[in-house]
Each structure stands twice: as structure tokens, then as C-alpha cells.
Amino acid sequence: MARTDSQSWLSSLMSPSPIAIAVAALLVLSIPLFLHLVIYRSASSSTIPSFLLVGPSGSGKTSLLTLFERGRHAETRISQAPLTVEVSLPVTTTTASSPYRSANDPSNQIHKKFLLADTPGHGKLRHYAFDSVIKPQNLKGIIFMVDAADVSTSSGGTSNEALRQAAEYLHDLLLLLQKRANTKSPRGPTELPVLVAANKLDLFTALPAPLLKTALESEITNMRSLRTKGLLDSGIGMNDLDIGDEKEWLGEGGEGKFDFTQMDEVNVSVTVAGGNVLGADGPDVKQWWDWIGSNL
């Protein structure tokens, strides 16, 4: 009897039912597929490159975000919170990873993906942008948008409020990047380029990119001098500031004329390029796309 039971059990084991076979086959096929999807999604979310979009309110950041994401303009409102979208680089834009590929290479027809993070430009909300610089997530570059039509100098040759605000924001951003580089934190990238995007160049009153560059450098120079003078007037001596060691001042020791090339010492290249998100003849953002592609 025992021998018969043993034979029956062994026969059942060697000849499973159709349901058991179907369940086993389903498990064999689904488990690897499930693991692949989980690992792929996890890797994609952590490795996709990102760019940070910053600048004063009204400079056109959200409009640019919408244009890049949808390929067309849409009505926008002043941002009150950060917004991140996934963007596809145009296939006609060359990336740094494939500068010498043939135009007929099939890989050139594949859209390169990246994340674009828009941050509010209001003074009380700029901490979102600064936090993203301190704790970067595969950050490849920063786009600082400026309304080139709003920062034109007045008839008397003095800078207006819009230019001062843009220069102050850019000064604080570059100073943060300088400090981040000097801390040699392993968490951040060793090089971080900045694009100053001169927007609304289709307007007659807009400053061309070279003049905007000069105006921002001049305003940052004045701002740096005033901040240094303010500390000196408060009784703090130059030796107490220890400018050269602590890098508390933007550029070369906080003295003399500032220009963007001084940021090269901390691996922060600054490029000024013009364009426009809107316009009677449509958007003109090719230089900005090219800059993004050169850093992907």
C-alpha cells in the first residue's frame, strides 16, 4: 500500500496538471520582466540629466519651459513653486556625446531626454533655486534667463532697477557656485556651466547679448564694491575678511573689475546668448538648444 501511494505521489509530481504548468510558465516569464521594469525605471529616474532654469520674475522662464516641453507657446502665469518636466532635445541639435557622428547615423534620430526644472523668480522664493544648486540631481547646467528689453540702461547712463535685480540674483548664484566648488563636495559635478539667456531680443529696446554681458558685469562690479565697503564701514578690516582664503567674494578677491571669465577658476563657464521665446516671426531659441546639447 505504501509503495502504491509513493508511486502515485511520484507520478503526480512528474505529470503536473495543465493549471500548474500555466502558473509556472507565467511566473518564469513575468518575474524577469518585472525585475527589468523596476531596475530600468529606477536607473532612468536617477541618471537622466537635468538643467536648472532660474532668473528674475517675468524673464520668460515658464514660457521657455512650455516651449521646450510642448514645442509651442502657451499662456503661463508667474510661478509660485518649482516645476520639472521631461524635455526632448531636437534631433537636429548635436550633443557633446556625439559631435563626430555622421548625419546618417541612425542614433542621431533618437531624441535625447533631459529634465528641465523651472524655479520661481520672486526674491522670497529663490531658495528653491539655491537648494537645487546645493543638492544637485545629475545637474548638467544652469540657464539664467534675463528680460533683455527690461534691463536697458536709462537715458542718463545709470542702471535701472530691473538690471540691478538681475545682477544681484546672478551675483548670489555665482557666489554660491564658487563656494560649492571650493568645498570640493563629492556630491556635485566638478564643472557646472551657466547660460545667461538674453530673452526678448526681437524687441527694439532689448540689449544685444554682448551689451547685456557688459552691463551685468559692470553692475556686479558695483555691487561687489558696495558690499565690501559696507563691511569695512562696519569696522571689519580686510584681514578679518580673509577674502583670498575663504572665497567669500565673487571672483578675484572682490576687488577691481569683475568679468565672467573669473569664474573659470572654479570650473564655472558663463556664456551669454540671445534669443526670444515669443515674437512676430515665432520663437528663436536655437542658440539655447545648442548650448544645452553641448552639455549633454
From TrEMBL:
User: Which cell locations does it reside in?
Assistant: Endoplasmic reticulum membrane
Q: Which InterPro entries match?
A: P-loop_NTPase (IPR027417), SRP_receptor_beta_su (IPR019009)
Q: Which residues cross the membrane?
A: 20-40
Asked whether the UniProt record includes RNA-binding among its keywords, one would answer: no
Q: How does it sit in the membrane?
A: Single-pass membrane protein
Grouped into one coarse class, the protein's main location is: endoplasmic reticulum
Q: Which UniProt keywords apply?
A: Endoplasmic reticulum, GTP-binding, Membrane, Nucleotide-binding, Receptor, Transmembrane, Transmembrane helix
Q: Which domain of life is it from?
A: Eukaryota
Its family? Belongs to the SRP receptor beta subunit family.
Q: What is this protein called?
A: Signal recognition particle receptor subunit beta
Q: Which organism is it from?
A: Lepraria finkii
Q: What is the lineage of its organism?
A: Eukaryota, Fungi, Dikarya, Ascomycota, Pezizomycotina
